[in-house]
Design brief:
Number of domains: 2
Order of helices and strands: HHHHHHHHHHHHH
Helix content: over 70%
Structural class: mainly alpha
Largest sheet: none
Mean pLDDT: 82
Strand content: under 5%
Distance between the termini: 40 Å
CATH class of the largest domain: Mainly Alpha
Number of helices: 13
């Protein structure tokens, strides 16, 4: 029934829920932050006499506002370092080397950009230094500034834009890299869970090397993405934005698990000898199935901040595989095998031993995240 004001309360409740869900979208929140950074930087420059109406401050605020606070801090620090290096060096070159003609101006431009470009190739923090040098050398003459004045204004504008971006990242729909970590780690675990049964199946049939490589590359890209988030979260921890757990610990565990899969993939890229495959195939399949289930459950535990799934089925499957290896040795089935086949079997056994150790570390990490985040 409509309210006395003629507004349906159910309609308002529905629209409020829709708006709350929309504001929960990381992409929409990022849109608000970038827009807020641009507007606030523009307003801030109106109180300072800057050339081009503070254009560079607004551009800086937009560029360094990132998806998370940690990423914004990183982008801002890199931008400030690159701007300082480019502005100071370019203004010094322009002040010391006359460049009244087009030829000498081109020479000064080359002299300024070449060292900065080389520094940018060595140190990513200097990526904006060559760009800043171009602005200092070329725009200053267009707006009637000297190179030193131009460098000063660039530094001031970058300082304003960077400060606005950091403040906005902290206050306007803040998104912590630490909060993005569980979902990114869960995606890695889900890819590992999907890949394990496929790789272990190689003990009984040949795996396409290109497919094996694609699997490994996808997992590697997912691990790299989580490591980037862990690095951003480390910066947030430095300014006491978040408490433990440290994503770097989980990142190292995921990287080791990825290395385990690389070794398993190399050992199982070709089928084992028939006499060995018929005995090792079933226990390897159980290891793959139980490990896959544990990884999927761990991914869900990270996302939901709930308790750790049982690791006992994985340990039991690995113990069954080790027992089967002992049976094969006692039966003398390994003696007639060529050295290359023995090497693959021993490599697979080593990978599974490391695999068990890394799964135990993963269980501790998941339990830590669930306890601290729950």
């Amino acid at each position: 029934m409509p309210s006395p004001a003629g507004v349906n309360p159910r309609f308002l409740l529905t629209r409020t829920k829709e708006l709350a869900a929309a504001l929960g979208s990381p992409r929409l929140r990022f849109c608000f932050r970038v827009t807020s950074s641009a507007i606030l930087a523009f307003i801030a420059t109106q109180f300072v006499a800057l050339p081009l109406h503070g254009l560079w401050a607004v551009l800086t605020a937009v560029v360094v506002t990132q998806m998370s606070v940690g990423a914004s801090l990183k982008a801002t620090s890199d931008y400030v370092v690159g701007t300082i290096g480019g502005a100071v060096y370019a203004s010094a070159v322009a002040a010391l080397v006359p460049h009244a003609t087009a030829v000498t101006a081109a020479a000064v431009l080359a002299l300024a950009i070449a060292p900065l470009a080389y520094a940018a190739a060595l140190y990513p923090s200097f990526r904006v230094a060559p760009f800043t040098a171009v602005l200092v050398l070329m725009i200053s003459s267009q707006v009637g500034e000297g190179p030193i004045d131009s460098a000063f204004y660039r530094l001031l504008e970058v300082a304003i834009g960077g400060a606005v971006a950091v403040v906005v990242s902290l206050l306007v729909f803040p998104s912590r890299a630490h909060a993005l970590g569980p979902d990114a780690a869960a995606r890695v675990l889900e890819q590992l869970a999907k890949a394990l049964p496929q790789l272990f199946a190689g003990a009984g049939r040949e795996i396409d090397p290109l497919e094996n490589r694609r699997i490994q590359d996808e997992i590697g890209a997912a691990v790299d993405a989580f490591e980037a988030i862990a690095a951003e979260a480390k910066r947030e921890r430095l300014i006491n934005l978040v408490s433990d757990p440290d994503p770097a610990v989980l990142a190292r565990t995921l990287l080791r698990l990825r290395h385990d899969l690389v070794i398993i993939g190399r050992a199982c890229v070709l089928p084992l000898p028939d006499a060995i495959a018929v005995r090792l195939g079933p226990p390897l399949a159980r290891v793959g199935a139980s490990a896959s289930e544990f990884l999927v459950a761990s991914a869900e535990a990270l996302r939901s901040r709930r308790g750790l799934p049982p690791i006992a089925p994985v340990e039991a499957a690995l113990a069954a595989y080790a027992a089967q290896i002992t049976t094969i040795r006692e039966a003398g089935l390994m003696q007639p095998l060529p050295s290359c086949e023995l090497e693959r079997i021993f490599t697979l056994g080593f990978a599974l031993q490391q695999f068990q150790h890394d799964f135990s570390d993963l269980a501790r990490c998941v339990q830590e995240w669930a306890r601290r985040q729950g």
